[in-house]
Amino acid sequence: MTDAPLARDTVDAMTPLVFIHDAAIDDFVATLLIESMPQFDLKGVIIANADCVPEPGIDVASRVNQFMGRPDLPLGLSSARGWNPFPWPYRGDCIRLGAIPILAPFQSNVPTPPASGDALLAEMLQTAIDTGTPLTILLTTGFTPLTNVLTAQPDLAQGIGRIAWMGGALDVKGNLDPTTIPPEIANKHAEWNVFWDPFAADDALASFGEIAVFPLDITDTAAITPAFMATLQAQGAQYSFSQFAFEAYSLVSDEPFYDMWNVTSTVWLDAPELYAAPHQTTLEVVQWGFEQGWMRPAPPMSERPSHNVYLSFADQPGFYDYVTTRLARSA
Questions:
Q1: Which PANTHER family is this protein grouped with (predicted)?
Q2: pTM
Q3: How large a percentage of the chain has pLDDT more than 90?
C-alpha cells in the first residue's frame, strides 16, 4: 500500500509519446526500446504507408503490441500518401517480419478498415493541450502523417513538445539505389524519408523549430554488426525482447546497407549523452528536378527556424551497450 503513491507519481511524471513509423524492421525494435524507457508513456503508434505494405504492416504492429504486453495500445493507419513510393523489395520486409517464430503465437486484432491514424494523432495532440502535457513525437518516416493533420487543424501544433526525426543526409551520400528505382531519378543526395514526400519535409522544416534531426551521417555508423547480433542471440536465451530483435535483424543482417536508422533517433530520447553535440542549422529540401529530396542547409540569412542536427556519436560503444541492455528484458 505504501508503494501506491510513488507509483502514481511516477506515472504522472512520464512524458507522453507517439511513435509515427512505417513498419520497417528497425521500427519494431525501436518500439521495444521505447517500452523499456521508464520516463516515456507510449500513448499510441501510427503506421504510414511508406516503407511497408500497409495491411501486413499494421497487422505486425498489432502483434508486436501483444508480444510486449500492450494489446490495447492505440494503433492507427495514417491516410498520408507519398510522392515517390518506396521500392517493393523494401516494403516487403514487414511481411517477412510477420513470419518470425517469436510472433507466431500472436494474431492481429486490427479491424477492417484499420482505425484512423489521423484521428488518433489529433486526439493525442488535443489531450496534450487540454492537460498541459506536451506530446513528444518520434517520427521515423516522412513528415506527411504529421503535416496533414496540422494542415487540417493548425491549432493542434500547440500540443507538440518536441520532435525527433530520422531523415536526410548532409555530408554523406543519400540512399537512393539505382538498382531499385530508375537511375534517372536516383540522385546521390536524397534519403528515402525525405524523398518519399519532399514537399511535406520542406514544409515541416520551415514550420517547426528545434527538430532533433538524425540523418544518414550518424545512422551510417549504427551498423548491425556481428558482435551486436551475437550479444542479442546470447541474451535471447533468457530475454524475449532480445530474441525478438535477434530474429528480426537476422532477416537483414547480411545486407551491408541496412543500419539501425530508427533505433538511432529512438535511443537519443533516453540517452542524449551518447551523442555528440548537434549542429544547429536551418534546412531546406529541393522539391523539383533531378535533385528532388535533397535536404541541405538553407541559404544564409534564411528566415527558417534552426534545427539540431546530430551527425555523430560521442560514445558509439555506449550506443550498442544501451540497446542490448535495454533489450535484456521480457514482456
A1: INOSINE-ADENOSINE-GUANOSINE-NUCLEOSIDE HYDROLASE, INOSINE-URIDINE PREFERRING NUCLEOSIDE HYDROLASE
A2: 0.95
A3: 94
